[in-house]
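Feature request disguised as a bug report, sorry. It would help if multi-protein outputs had a clear separator. Right now it looks like this:
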Amino acid sequence: MIRSTILTLLVLAMPVAALFGQAAHTAPAVTLRVVPLEQVSLPREAIETAMKYLGVPYVPGGVSATGLDCSGLVYRVFHDGAGLSMPGGVGALFRTGTAATYPLHIGDLVFFDTESRGSLSVATHVGIYIGNGKFIHAASEGQHTGVIVSPLDSPYYRDRFLGARRVIPWRQPVLRMVLTDTAKEEATANPFPSREPMRIEVLNDMAGGGPMDLTILKDGKPVFATRIAPGVSGPAVIPLTPDTGRWDVEVNRLWKGRELGRLTFTVEE
């Protein structure tokens, strides 16, 4: 399991008082279970590993922290950060996984033809997409060499972009909230790519409950609202295709007027 998933679950296991720095609620703490990554393959661990190599010098054929070339960086990152066995060489990597189309996902491999003077045809350089239109790679020439972060839309790389490959399959993200009492908890999920369909599931499991209002907010402004009746078998399912920004899922109990739970997550380009 990716380490960030474990950290998220550890946060959710904390008492409400620990999260908010106030006296513990006398009622049992709300059960707010969030599953942002157990059903989603996002190589966050791999990206965190990649950023540790920033500044490592470029060395042809290098596969260690003393020196890396572009395919060596990919091998090192996915081997150490995600436990994957990757082939050596840019050409072999270009035949790995499946073709990735827009929007790119964090962890997609991006390829460039840096040698052809006419039409692009041969992958000669590779990097790893890290979100927000940027990729990390080991550059062998230019103003900065070694492991650096570059924008995909810079003229040099934009004009030489050959395509992208997805090494880790993407599955639709599901954010699941199960509410069982009147206390409040807050959790932050890891980023998701923008314009990708996702599901929000909220189960009203209140004993003797009453209806709940659910509101989805984008950058603090409501964009969707629904009412969840008690005693419904199974969770309320809300499909969402979010764009970039901060999103909040807010659930309130009507008859007490109290916030039951709030889940915050971010969406990256």
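(second protein starts here, but nothing in the output says so)
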Amino acid sequence: MGSHFNFEQRKIIANKLAHGEKLCDIASLLEKDSTSISKEIKRNRVLTINGAPSDLVCEKTQKFPYVCSTCSKRYAKCHHNQYRYDANYAQDLADKRLVESRKGINIDKEDFEIINDIVKEGVNRKESIYHIVHANNINVSVPTLYRWIDNKLMSTTKMDLPYAVSFKKRRKQNEKYDYSSSRVDRSNRTFLDYLEFRRFNPGLFCWQMDFLGSIKTDSKYILTLIVPEIHFPLIKIFERPNQEKIRNFYDKLEKAIGTDSFSTVFPAILTDRDPCFIDYLGIEKSIYYEKNRTQIFYCDAFKSSQKGSVENMNRQLRKFFPKKKSIEHFTENQIREINIIMINTKIQSLNGFTPKEVFIKLFGEDILEELLKI
């Protein structure tokens, strides 16, 4: 295309044409093929104001130099179209042509329809665009698909994507409010203690824990756990959760995978100050031995950003559990199926691997199966 020439080269072409230079000499000077020079001149030449517009074809403009720069009749009465090559005009044409060439979709209609259907089906299954591209080996980049959706070229719309639309600004929290459990002694279990723990135990994969918000009339609540580094989520549903039920949940995990494996998989847990998580001694202490199986740490009050990974996971779960919608009808099996979908989603930061694949690599498939059974 004409974009192979820059403005300086076009000025040289215009100058050499005005002085009647040979095609081979111009090509040699610019270190270009003679055919490329010819195409550049013919593609970007322009009609002059001299001469009257006519359908008559001048033989001299059908071959090099394709313009009337050195023609003896260029200022005289001529019944043919007269052409000239102007560097500025040629550059403008080339720039415009480059922009136009990048518009639209550079793909066959049939291939586009196939991709369109794959994306639509994937989004309906609550899959991310990144997962859809890599799971189906689509030969189109993730940014390109987002651009097609944004330009309304696909049947999938921005409203179908969970985070492509903006959220309303949150109402300001009343920070004077305090939890009923504010008198609980959380010494050595604050967020600063958690950071110190991570400093002295850099190789451990610590979890973050939280409840997914639900409507006030619901008796069921969803507990979300996640290992931030590998994006591995574990979600469970509880009927009217309390301290005892949360402690029993961890007891079942220890019984299923053993104390040593429990301490390896759950070395520490960072959570908020929800009343259901008050019994840190019950969660920490092993049911078999006089020792701790894990360590519990608490975020500062009104600092949900300190456990940003689980907050982000809860946002992703909103694809399955929309706000202001009841979750009473969900069963444990349905929650398990959603959990399996989440751990089988390809993650860009994991280089296209799924959280399931990474978890198995770190802790083994047997432990994974036991966690999903609980």
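Even a blank line would do. Unrelated, but nice: Strands lie at 46-47, 83-84, 207-212, 220-227, 232-239, 269-271, 296-298.
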